[in-house]
Design goal:
Order of helices and strands: HHHEEEEEEHEEHHEHEEHH
Number of helices: 9
CATH topology: Muramoyl-pentapeptide Carboxypeptidase, domain 2
Strand content: 5-15%
CATH class: Alpha Beta
CATH architecture: 2-Layer Sandwich
Structural class: alpha+beta
Strand order of the largest sheet: 8-11-9-10
Number of strands: 11
Distance between the termini: 50 Å
Number of domains: 1
Radius of gyration: 19 Å
Helix content: 25-40%
Length: 304
Amino acid sequence: MAPHMLRASFSLGLSLLLLASPAVRAETNAAEEALYRAEALRTLPKNAARRLFSEPATPAQLAAEAIGAYGRGCVAGAVELPPEGPGWQVMRPSRVRNFGHPKLVAWIEKFAAEAQEDGWPGLLVGDMAQPRGGPMLTGHDSHQLGLEADIWLTPAPPLLLNAEEREEMSAIDMVQPDLLDTNADFTSAQIALLRRAALMPDVDRIFVNAAIKAAACRGATGERGWLRKLRPWPGHTYHFHVALKCPNAGCAQRNPVPAGEGCGKELDHWFRPEVRFPKPDKRPRRILRLADLPKACREVLAAP
């Protein structure tokens, strides 16, 4: 095949992957992320919300407010989680996704301190939100309101990671290849970390892989009410996804978490072969325009 045809074929394949998949891979390194971003910028229309919200490097200087829904909104008055602090380090800092509603940043700081008291070596914090929230150029469909954060299930190493290590270090996959059970890297320490997060009152729910949910159900001791907040979801084998409750009236609450521990037959669905390994969805991903978001998000984009 001629070189120009190879380039065209690769570009088309990458474009389809970006459009069809909500997330390319949760733990991409800096070089991979740069490739996906470049292709997204090449293919997205100029009024695509993903493009527009990827541009601001600073938060909107407005009163703090989560605006809209978790999959269609933005955040005003966001603040930055520092690259490191007592008990946490920000991973993949070049993505500039370590911003959130002040309640999220305060939550991470508090969670890091409490997790350390439990014996966890330190949090490795993945994606939170962009400086003004909104749809991201690559990856998530959520993380738009500044109320969500991905926390790696990999414990922080003893020494502070340098800039290159934070971009390149791979998270540890906690689930077996068949997605039926966790592997030896998932221990009681990870269960204790999930328990600590779930017990915090501002947490609405925590998304984890079904195998991790099942392992937590088996390994939990004592009071088990916190297990209710662990919600099975595809992927999430490297990290858990924390979503806080809406802090203001302009934020759309999710449906209530179902009653019960969620450790019974309701888990069976997630272990069916067609759910663990679904057929690729070849339909183009819908491209949200700015007009598809709440009107207040235009003000967020336009604000200094």
